[in-house]
Amino acid sequence: MDKDFERQYLETYKSSADAIFRYCFLRLGDRELSRDIAQETFTKAWQYAVRGEKIDNIRAFLFTTARNLVIDHYRRKKETSLDNLVEQGFEIGAEDEALIDKLDGKQAMTFLSLMPEKYRDAIYLQYVEGLSIKEIAEVTGETENNISVRIHRGLQKLRSILRSQNE
Amino acid sequence: MNKDQETNKEQDIFYKMVEKAREVKLTEREKTALFAHVDSYIRRNPLESESKVQVENKVLRIKNPVKSPFWDNAASLTKKTFEISAKKISAIHDEYRGLGRMTFHNSGFRVAAAFALILVIGGSTSLAAQGALPGDFLYPVKVGFNEEIKSVFLFGRSDVEYQVERTKNRINEVKKLAEQNRLSDEVSVRAASRIDSQISKVTKDLDNLANKGDLKTVYEITSELEKALRQTDGEITRLAVEKNSDPQTLSAKRITRDLKAKTVETRLSVEEKIFTSQKTDEEMKSIAMAKYETVKSALADIEAASLTEISIIEEVSVSAILTDEVAVGSTTLLMADEPEAVDIEITTMTEKPIDPLTQAKELFSLGEEKLNNGEYNEAFKLLRDAGAILDTLNTETEILQEEKERQVKDETDAELAKEVEKAEEPNFLLVENKKTAE
User: Fold this and answer.
1) B45: which chain A residues are within 8 Å (Cβ-Cβ)?
2) Is this prediction's ipTM beyond 0.85?
């Protein structure tokens, strides 16, 4: 049974490694650091299992662990400003929508990270990583109701950012 | 543009943004290297406590290691030998007191003479013990006396190298036991425990050397041990194929697998230290050369293994095919632990998937080139990445092998169960014949 769990855990790693890395990258903006935090997330989660603690939802648990590690190693990227994105040639709301396609993943993550922190996690975890409201609540330690409100307000905030670029 | 159109456009932009964000991923090499770390960590920190060891479907509880009944006999034999030696030395001393006073009063000479006599008088026992295997009467003499005596006179690098020799001896004993069908569950568990404590000794000695700054020696010794383990593992695998994966060879495989994982963990830890410490060019050259030899040996083993286990390797290659696009021409690869990029030429077409073994070979060739050009740091990084891919390939092969072994076992158990059932069925023919006779 324990070999099964080990196998399951390694399978979870294979399916979640990118998502955990991406989440760390969203928060830290540094690839190497994000890799280190992602690695530490998986070893810490295993330590928890070895201690005999029960993990109900491994995916949510991994995001929680990553989030806590990021809080410990938090680093604000200096270039997290819309002006810098515009300098790089990205114009949000431009007439020619094909410009959106020129945006690379890293720039997209930078844009998403512009949102206020309390909305950012909720929006990111739901839309990019596909977590449910319940799972996001577990990760962030908030109630499900709060998460729903944050998603709603976060989207409104995002809309206002996009509109301000159009003006 | 009306409000609805504007909202739709904003939504469209948002969803495209989400799609782009999902493109941020680990490269296959990064994922593989990370996997190697996580996998090693899991093997070093198994789920069950050490007081419980699961051997196939049985759980053996070994809270207090069972003392070998053979040890007491061997120990008293050794003690007797020493007492005889001491009496003889004393007798010699008395006889030659007048003549060789200066020589025999020299304490250093007395100690040496004592050892010489022990070796002569106890020599036959000691010699007989050399070929002993776990479970043999003289095995404790081999491990507790012969090998211990040798290690007394060794220091520093020689001592560590000798402890590594002892580790290799332990794993070779497991192989011989499996060959001779003597690797029962209990013997297997004790052998694993002995190997565990031996590798802890080696790790401790290596840590001491590393703390003194001698990373070059540490790395060379670790690489040497890994190479030897891989060789023995290959021999056990071939034995398993010959014996149709019988429980004893599978048991031996498990022991080697665990030991390999621990050695890989030690090696990874040393590699981390290498990256963060200052080294001379000469030291880096030796380290890069040691890595080169290890990876070369690993590649050769995998290719040799693929001749006897082609179906397993093929399955691994198919399941691990890379899908990342690689630009034609020159590109930049981020190394596992260095922020600066290394520019290399890649001529692979964008749509062609690269299997891990080919990728490892490419990295190995690049590493070899850097080594020949005297770029030892870069060579080491490339060879390390090649090694990480091969580690994963081995892990995936082992997982597949375990599944096949389990399948074989299940089929064997099912056949056995059928035979038992058949044996228990009433012999209707006999009953019919009996009736007819009546």
Assistant:
1) 46-47, 50
2) no
